[in-house]
Design goal:
Elements (H helix, E strand, L loop, with lengths): L4 H11 L3 E4 L2 H8 L4 H5 L7 E4 L8 E5 L15 E5 L17 H10 L8 H11 L6 E4 L8 H8 L4 E4 L1 H8 L4 H22 L8 H14 L3 E9 L20 E10 L2 E2 L2 E7 L4 H20 L6 H14 L11 E3 L6 E4 L13 E5 L2 E3 L3 E3 L2 E5 L6 E2 L8 E3 L2
Parallel strand pairs: 1-5, 3-4, 5-6, 10-18
Antiparallel strand pairs: 1-2, 2-3, 7-8, 8-9, 8-10, 11-12, 11-13, 13-16, 14-15, 16-17
Helix pairs in contact: 8-9, 10-11
Length: 402
């Protein structure tokens, strides 16, 4: 199972809440296994919820528009209760037509045609909260969903309910990964590395940034992933690399910056490298070596109980000692999972202690206008002992075509 039911119970107890409501695409997926196409396409409008309680957090009530009732087929088998709203037409075979429904069709029929849907999303959610026995209890409601007036609407509906925001509670729950989540993360890393290698294999004089991005995205799709981002830029463009790729052409002596990611089975990747096309300059070797040294130090420090801020401090100090004395950085990594940025973030002020089975992207980028910079980012699993690097790419400066 993706979710950690014991952790959900413990975190809900620490927050002193009796129920929790998911409202974002990612949190609904975590509690139900359902990845909503509507929520992905219509981020600001498409509502969907899960109401869960600590007795059986894996068996929450799924609250959905009736148009997405068929997504019940993707739900965890523990999801048995549904509250629907809205209008959508799924007809039964007309009289006289001999048609036996499949088990999948019968399940959708059972939840969407046997009882009338609620009029609005808030009506459906309120019904689910009542069914869960939460009308007069303490409930944490995820405030980051499309309905930004949700908490106020629920408070008006349930004046005796004690409502608190839930987004940070969900982030604390999802900080630590289960074995199934780690397996999915490993697959996402594998797909991303495959696409990286496929792209580097196409390096040649004259190939453009746009072409390299297309090669990368096709390779992700070929392996069953969903492209998320492909920041692939030549040399000095790295320092302004979040802008769109151009028709700048690769030449011998250039280097290429990769900051790349995808989604596989609901889980994200975010890894990075610099690849020199031909013999690298002494300057590139120096700054890339310093960046790698800082990342090495961060990974050395990543043990249970170590504060995130101490990992940051150790990494930045090592980069400075190793060749970039003026190095500055706002973070040197972040948790990752269903969202690209999970907690904790490795900043100078984050006092969250590391725990086994947290997964991070550890990075020590250096961006310099007029030059480009240095970059290395790896996926790292915190264990009971030394941290384990999940990426398998060469961590030295990669040189091709020399």
């Amino acid at each position: 199972m993706l979710m950690d039911t014991a952790r959900i119970r413990n975190q809900m107890a620490a927050a002193e809440v009796d129920g929790i409501v998911a409202s974002t695409l990612e949190n609904v997926f975590y509690l139900s296994g359902i990845w909503s196409l509507g929520a992905e396409l219509f981020r600001y409008d498409a509502e969907g919820y899960v109401v869960a309680t600590p007795d059986r957090p894996e068996a929450g009530i799924w609250v959905s528009s009736i148009g997405e009732a068929d997504l019940i087929l993707d739900a965890n088998p523990t999801i048995e209760r549904v509250s629907l709203w809205g209008a959508f037409e799924r007809a039964m075979p007309p009289d006289g037509v001999d048609s036996t429904l499949s088990p999948e069709e019968e399940r959708v029929r059972a939840i969407s045609l046997q009882r009338a849907p609620h009029r609005t999303s808030v009506d459906a959610l309120a019904a689910a909260l009542e069914e869960a026995g939460l009308a007069e209890r303490a409930v944490a409601v995820d405030e980051r969903g499309p309905n930004r007036g949700l908490i106020e609407a629920l408070q008006a509906r349930f004046p005796r309910m004690r409502i608190t925001p839930a987004s940070q509670l969900f982030r604390r729950i999802r900080m630590v990964k289960t074995a199934d989540e780690i397996t999915r993360m490993q697959e996402t890393v594998r797909v991303t590395e495959h696409a990286f290698r496929a792209t580097v294999a196409e390096f040649r004089e004259g190939i453009t940034e746009r072409e390299l991005v297309r090669i990368f995205d096709r390779a992700i799709v070929d392996e069953g992933g969903h492209p998320a981002f492909a920041l692939i830029r030549l040399g000095r463009s790295m320092a302004v690399g979040q802008s769109l790729p151009t028709d700048a052409a690769l030449r011998k002596g250039d280097y290429v910056w990769f900051d790349i990611g995808c989604r596989v089975s609901g889980y994200q990747s975010d890894i990075g490298r610099v690849v020199s096309f031909g013999e690298p300059s002494d300057r590139l070797r120096l700054v890339q070596g310093a960046s790698r040294a800082g990342q090495d130090r961060a990974i050395e420090l990543m043990r249970p109980g170590v504060l995130a801020r101490d990992v940051f401090t150790g990494a930045v100090e090592r980069v400075r000692e190793s060749g970039i004395p003026h190095y500055q950085r706002h973070h040197v990594g972040h948790g990752i999972g269903i969202e690209t940025y999970d907690l904790p973030i490795l900043t100078p002020s984050t006092d969250i202690p590391l725990e086994p089975n947290m997964i991070f992207e550890v990075e020590t980028p250096y961006y310099e206008l007029g030059f480009g910079g240095a970059f290395i980012e790896d996926t790292v699993l915190v264990t009971d002992g030394e941290a384990r690097i999940l990426t398998t790419l060469d961590r030295d400066l990669i040189v091709v075509g020399a």
